[in-house]
C-alpha cells in the first residue's frame, strides 16, 4: 500500500496551546483535551471564564497556564507563545479564537473590520510562525485552524467574518502542502452553527446547530486521527456544496431565507478600551 495511505496517527499531545479558551466552544475544548500531565496554555481575556477554563483543565489532570495578551497585539501574543514553546515544546496549536461583527447593507465600521481581521486572521499567522520553527526542528506537531461554514457559503450579514474564515481555510490548505514531509500536520476545522454565546448574537436561522461539547468531541477525534479537514455537520456541508452548484439567481433566492442580523457585541466597548473576549 502507498505510504501516504498508511500514515500513523499523531501521538497524543504533551503540550498544547488553545486560543479562544473562554468561549462556549473553548471551554468545551478545554474539557475534551484535558488529560493527566498535559501542559495547556489557555488564551483568553475574560478573567472569570479563563478561571473556569483553568478549573476544567485541572479537573482533567492537565497542567494549565493562562495567557491574557490581547490578540489585537499579535507580536506580543506571538512572543508569549514562543516563550511557552521554549519551556514546553508544543505538539498542538489549536487556534479557536474568533470574533464577528454585523453590518447594515454593506456598511461595517472600519475599526470593527480591522478588529475582526486582527483577531481572526493576523493573530493566527503570528501564532503559527511562533511555533513552527520548533515543530519543524522536532519533526512533529499539529496546527489546527478554525474556519467556518461561512467560508463555504458567504454570509451577507458577516462581511469581514466571512472573509477571514475563507482566508484561514485557504491558508491552512496551503500550509499543509508547504509542510508535507516535515512531520508537522495541519488541519482545517470547518464547523457549522454551534450553540455558544457568539451564535446567540446572530438573530436568524441557524440550521443543524449542535452543542459545544459535541463539537469539541468531533474536533478532538478528528485531530487524533490526523485529518486534514474536520467539517461538520456533514449534511449541512453537503447542502452548501449543492447550493454552490446552482445558478447564482437561484442560490441568491435561497440565501434570502437565511439572512439574519447580528446583535452588537456587548464586549465591543471593552475591546476598544484594550480588552477582548476572543471566544466563540
Automatic annotation (TrEMBL):
Taxonomy of the source species: Bacteria, Pseudomonadati, Pseudomonadota, Alphaproteobacteria, Rhodobacterales
Any one of the GO CC terms: membrane
Native source species: Paenirhodobacter populi
Domain of life of the native organism: Bacteria
Gene3D superfamilies in the record: NAD(P)-binding Rossmann-like Domain
Residues annotated as domain Ketoreductase: 14-196
Family per record: Belongs to the short-chain dehydrogenases/reductases (SDR) family.
Keyword Magnesium: no
Keywords, sorted A to Z: Oxidoreductase
Name of protein: SDR family NAD(P)-dependent oxidoreductase
Record InterPro entries: KR_dom, NAD(P)-bd_dom_sf, Sc_DH/Rdtase_CS, SDR_fam
One MF term in the entry's GO annotations: oxidoreductase activity
Amino acid at each position: 500500500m502507498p505510504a501516504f495511505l498508511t500514515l500513523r496517527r499523531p501521538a497524543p499531545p504533551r503540550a498544547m496551546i488553545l486560543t479562544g479558551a473562554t468561549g462556549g466552544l473553548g471551554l468545551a475544548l478545554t474539557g475534551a483535551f484535558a488529560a493527566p500531565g498535559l501542559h495547556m496554555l489557555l488564551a483568553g481575556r475574560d478573567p472569570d471564564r479563563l478561571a473556569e477554563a483553568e478549573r476544567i483543565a485541572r479537573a482533567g489532570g492537565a497542567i494549565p497556564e493562562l495567557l491574557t495578551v490581547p490578540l489585537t497585539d499579535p507580536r506580543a501574543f506571538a512572543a508569549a507563545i514562543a516563550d511557552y514553546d521554549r519551556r514546553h515544546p508544543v505538539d498542538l496549536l489549536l487556534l479557536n479564537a474568533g470574533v464577528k461583527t454585523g453590518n447594515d447593507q454593506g456598511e461595517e465600521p472600519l475599526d470593527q473590520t480591522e478588529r475582526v481581521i486582527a483577531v481572526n486572521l493576523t493573530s493566527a499567522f503570528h501564532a503559527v510562525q511562533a511555533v513552527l520553527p520548533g515543530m519543524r526542528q522536532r519533526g512533529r506537531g499539529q496546527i489546527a485552524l478554525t474556519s467556518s461554514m461561512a467560508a463555504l457559503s458567504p454570509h451577507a450579514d458577516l462581511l469581514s467574518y466571512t472573509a477571514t474564515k475563507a482566508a484561514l481555510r485557504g491558508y491552512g490548505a496551503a500550509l499543509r502542502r508547504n509542510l508535507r514531509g516535515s512531520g508537522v500536520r495541519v488541519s482545517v476545522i470547518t464547523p457549522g452553527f454551534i450553540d455558544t454565546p457568539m451564535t446567540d448574537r446572530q438573530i436568524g436561522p441557524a440550521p443543524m446547530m449542535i452543542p459545544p461539547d459535541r463539537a469539541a468531541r468531533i474536533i478532538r477525534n478528528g485531530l487524533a486521527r490526523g485529518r486534514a479537514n474536520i467539517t461538520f455537520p456533514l449534511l449541512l456541508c453537503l447542502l452548501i456544496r449543492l447550493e454552490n452548484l446552482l445558478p447564482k439567481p437561484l442560490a441568491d433566492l435561497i440565501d434570502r431565507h437565511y439572512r439574519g442580523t447580528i446583535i452588537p457585541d456587548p464586549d465591543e466597548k471593552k475591546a476598544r478600551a484594550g480588552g477582548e473576549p476572543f471566544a466563540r
